[in-house]
Amino acid sequence: MRAVPGWAVAAAAAAPVLLAGGWTVAGARQPPGYDPVRDTISELAGQGATDPWIMTACLVLLGGCYLGTALVLHAAGLPSRFLLAVGGVATIALIAVPRPRVGGSLGHGVVATVAVLALALWPAGSALLLPRGPDRRHPARAAAPWAFRRPVALTVTALLLALFAWCAVEVTGGSRTGLAERTTALAVALWPLLAVLSARRGARAHGRGGIGPPVGPDPPVGPGRPEATD
Fold first, then answer.
1. Packed helices 78-93 and 106-129: angle between N→C axes, nearest 10 degrees
2. What pLDDT score does 70 carry?
3. pTM above the 0.70 mark?
């Protein structure tokens, strides 16, 4: 099992901080009419926002954190890392299709949907493809870290998809769109951090010999079996 570098932990930890810090600082710069419960994060980087560069910069850095995590999180498997990278690219691409001053934008909606879905589905990719528990044919192979075990990863994806569904309901006619979007975005930003910490712990345990085949006693000396000599 490959070790997880320290900078990957820092990048994963920076993601939720950038997200929450960005919408807090940018929201404070908006006119009094802006309501974080009702209004979306995208409006903070949109064409009618005050100082949109604040949220725009945070989105770029946030996408970079996802990409950096996907680059080194080998424990997740290639399909999951690909989905995480897609989420990072789509997050950065949001700045190319900002929310207009009035009304919505099909391009912005599509890119935002791709970003959230990719970031919600990537845990399930590892849960479905990686081996669960010790491999009897290869007993020395390390078991998957806890974040990538099937019950955990599928539960996480189910919860993230439920939050995405809440967002969709609010967007189509609710009054708490901003709250739903912020809750979902923070949840998808926190899971890569937990996954990185899980992979790092698993790699350390495997490196110390905490995961591996059991070591039994020496075979007894008997007829047809030579006695051990020094």
1. 160
2. 95
3. yes
